[in-house]
Please model this.
Amino acid sequence: TATATATATATATPTAPPTKALNLSTRARADTGDKVVIGGFIINGNMSQKVVLRGLGPSLTRFNLTGVLQDPVIELRQSNGALIFKNDNWKDDQRTQIEGSIYQPTDDRESVIVANLPPAAYTVTLSGKNQTTGIGIVEIYDNDAEADAELANISTRAFVQTGDNVVIGGFMLGFGSSNAQIAVRGLGPSLSQFGLSNVLADPTLELHDSNGNTLASNDDWQSDPVAAAQLTANGLALQDSKESGIFTTLPPGAFTAILAGKNGGTGIGTVEVYNLH
Model:
């Protein structure tokens, strides 16, 4: 099924460092305009954090995916939209920092950015060169296990379709740490406040472990009163009753959150993962 394939292929490929870090790997269809893939992340802590960002496309054919993004481009921006760094082909920039590392892509057309970022909010945009489209992966890695800083509150906005074109957010909780409280949210209707049209009218969420087992699922967030109370208590109540929320405790490991539309619905949606410790 599409879900099984998604769960098997969304998880980040490099080995995560043995820390508290949250690493994000979201697979989605990158389109144009408002339908590009936008990953948002926050760095918390008292010092700068080394991060690695990747945009993958051509190499996804090894997972038997068709219609992949042939030439991904990634852009790292500040929360105000100011461009920090852009990369098309990973060998074009920072080659010496990437080559031979676990972050080196298998295809020269794929994109990588290495950055040292102070605590703040950032976005990374995945699109296709020259307005091309297709299934791609945007990844955000904590590359500094010892820093007094961490990735937190990570989200991805994309155009949610059906089958292999749903949005799959993979995240890894650092090994060797204790269980973490995790909130996952699926947004759609409330995105219209940002001037977006064609939003996902009725988002659904599924949370899977690395073996593909379903740990939790949700359609309308208030339908689970226990999770709804926890989301509300943590300031994460959703604005629209059709939006989805999961609140759970997870051990270290790799997980995927699948954002889809109820009854095959499509539209622009956002999947968010919060590490609440």
